[in-house]
Structure formats: C-alpha cells, structure tokens
Amino acid sequence: MTHAYANLNIRPVINACGIYTDLGGSCLSPSVWAALDEVNREWASIPELLQASGERIAALVGAEAARVAPGASACIALGIAACIAGRRGDLNERLPAGDVERRTVLLQKGHNYKYARCALLAGARLEEVEAGSADQLAAALGPDVAAILHPAHLDGREGTLPIDAVSDLARERGVPILVDAAYLSYPTELIGRWVGSGADLVCFSAKYFYGPNAGGFMAGDAELIEAVAELDFTHFEAGPYLTFGRPFKLDRIAIVGTMLALEEWLEMDHEARWGEYAQRVGALAERLESRTDLRIEQRQFTLDERLADGPVNAVVLDLESPRRAAEVERRLTDGEPRIFCVVVDSRLVFCVETVRPEQDEALADAILASI
Fold it and tell me: What are φ and ψ of residue 6, in 5° steps?
C-alpha cells in the first residue's frame, strides 16, 4: 500500500472495470508523467499555456482552434455559455441567472441523456424537440435559440436527424452546434470525423485517451473558442468582468497532461495495444478454465458499457444467477487485494485495459478464491 493511501486508510484497488471517472479515469503513461514532473517544477503563465496548448491541439485534430477545459462536462457548460453570451463580457458576467434573452438550447427528444443537464450550468433553457424531419427542427429554431446540443454517441438514433442534416439547418439559421463526443477518441479517426462534421464546438474527455481525469478539450470555431477564453477563470482574475467560468479552474499539470496524452494517443500503435489485451485476456481465461463449472467468454467491453464482438479486452464470467454474481462481486470488492469489476445481470466483466500486467496473476487468484 502506498504511503499516501495508507495515511488515509484507503486500500488501493485493482481496477478491472475500465475507464471510469469515480475510479480516477485512466493512468498517465510513464513518458507523460515524466514530462509533467518538469511542468510541476516550473511556473508558467496559464493564459499563455492555454493558448499554446490549444493551438497545438487544434493542429493535431484539424480544427480552427481548441481549448483545454477540466473535462467534457465543463466543455459543455463553457461552450454553451459562449454560445449564449458570445464575447460580450457584460452578458458573461450575468450568467447563469441573469436576464439573457437568447438562452434556449435545443436537444432532439431521441437524444435525451444525462449529461445534457450540463448545459443548465450556463443558465441555458433546455428544450427537447421532435426532430424526425428537417421541417420539425427548422420550426423549433426560433430567435431565442442559442445552440443545439448534439450527443455524438446517439447520432443516427431512430427518430432523430443525423449531424449532417442538423448542421445544414443550423448553418442557415446561424445557430451553433455543440457536439458532445466525450469518449469518441478511438478509432482515432473519430476525432477528425467529429471535428469536421459541421459542428461549431466538439467536446472530448481526456481520460479516454489516457489523459488526466480532470482534463478535456473542445475544438472548432475560432470565434467561439475565443469567447470561451474570455469567459473562463483566467479572465475572471485579469479581465474587466467577473465572468461565468471562474469555477472551471485548471492547473499546469492538467493542461499540459491533456495535450501530451493526446499527442501520444494519436501516435500510438493501437493494433499492438489491442493485441496485448487479447493475449492477457486469453491467459486469464485459461487460468479460470481450471474450474470446469464456469462459463467463460472473451469479449470486448465498450466505453458505452456494452459487451460486443471484435477485438477483446475483457473476460466475462457468467455465474448464471444475478444473486450469485452480486455475492462474488462483493467478495472481490472486500477482499485482499480489492478487485473492482462490472456486474451485468448474472455476469462479471473483468476488463484488463485498466489492470496493470503485473496484477494479472493476483486478479486470477482472487477470482478463483471468490467463486
């Protein structure tokens, strides 16, 4: 047990769940961690750092501009605030509760999802609209509409308009589109696909490309990115207005860590990464097969929490009873070492992506001892 955890009476966890915010997101690579040691030791101007890192990220993803923010949810709140107030400091200062007429944010009914409420942090009035046809969406685009929120993972859902159709209508009416593409950074081509989709701002979470849990970035229209810059925490301290974005503070580590992790992610040999997962999943499954009464599958556990075919990163143990699965999960959570996994009905999912290779043997031993 590490000294810091021990002092807090916290027992470390072998994370076989995957990338989850409440488990700390992901782990920074050794090279990013080493670079951040230097960043930690040297001061820098945060406004300059945000500007330069944004320029670097924009070049990496093919956008006009980009800006680091403390996570995809913060990107939504800051981006919607920029859509509502633009570069008018007086309006920024009145958010979220002030008298601002143009604050409606449209969301297609088939796109209702829990992170839409992040738009409310900026004082938006969220309005769900039937948009099965272009005429329905066009009728909703009144003068009080500040933006359209479009969750990328729900694009193309039945009964909704895809981003291409939405962007054509929005462009005609001068209404910006903010796309939430939080975890859509793999395959890496998805980043460029969404940045080039016709959206005005696209939001990504850094933890899904092995960056800081408290990191993310938005990319897109340069004018809107500048509006975000003018309402963020740096302008609260140095600008003439007490702007909306003060709570969304960043430190040097989160800013540079987000940028460096993205650079590594885009250069990474992902075929080799998935090949390593497959090898480790196969070895774990082989260990568990010593218990001939177990039903074991090798599957892909996706970032939207589905079990899928394709490149594998998880061992799935079907215990045939939700009650038994819950009991085994509790033993693993309470055991030594502590093992966190995902329960799906009667199945336990062990995702190796967030398990260190040197922990594989302990993971197998703990599973066998708990069933």
Answer: -60, -40
Pairing of strands 201-205, 177-180: parallel
CA-based radius of gyration for the chain:
22
Read off the pLDDT of residues 262-290 as tens digits, 9 standing for 90 and up.
999 999 999 999 999 999 999 999 999 99
d(CA 7, CA 27): 22
What whole-number distance in Å separates Cα of residue 329 and Cα of residue 285?
17
Residue 371 CB neighbour total at 10 angstroms: 18
* Contact status, residue 118 vs residue 150, Cβ threshold 8 Å: no
pLDDT at residue 2 greater than cutoff 80: no
Residue type, 57: I
Q: Which two tokens stand for residue 334?
A: 């309470």
* pTM, to two decimals: 0.96
Residue 224: both structure tokens together:
């809107």
DSSP string, 229-243: HHHBHHHHHHSSS--
d(CA 187, CA 112) in angstroms, rounded, equals 25
